[in-house]
Amino acid sequence: MSENLSAFLYLVASVCFILSLRGLSSPESARTGNILGMVGMAIAIFTTLASPAVLSYTTIIVGILIGGAIGTVIALKIQMTALPQLVAAFHSLVGLAAVFVAGAALYSPGAYGIGTAGNIGAASLIEMGLGVAIGAITFTGSLIAFGKLQGIVSGTPVRFKGQHMLNLAIGIAIVVFGIILVVTESHTAFWILVALALVLGVTLIIPIGGADMPVVVSMLNSYSGWAACGIGFTLQNSALIITGALVGASGAILSYIMCKGMNRSIFNVIFGGFGAEGEAAAGAGGDGDRSVKSGSADDASFIMKNASSVIIVPGYGMAVAQAQHALREMADILKAEGVKVRYAIHPVAGRMPGHMNVLLAEASVPYDDVLEMEEINRDFGSADVAFVIGANDITNPAAKTDPASPIFGMPILEVEKAKTVLFVKRGMSAGYAGIQNELFFKDNTMMLFGDAKKMCEEIVMHLDN
Question: In the annotation, is 287 catalytic?
Answer without folding.
Answer: no
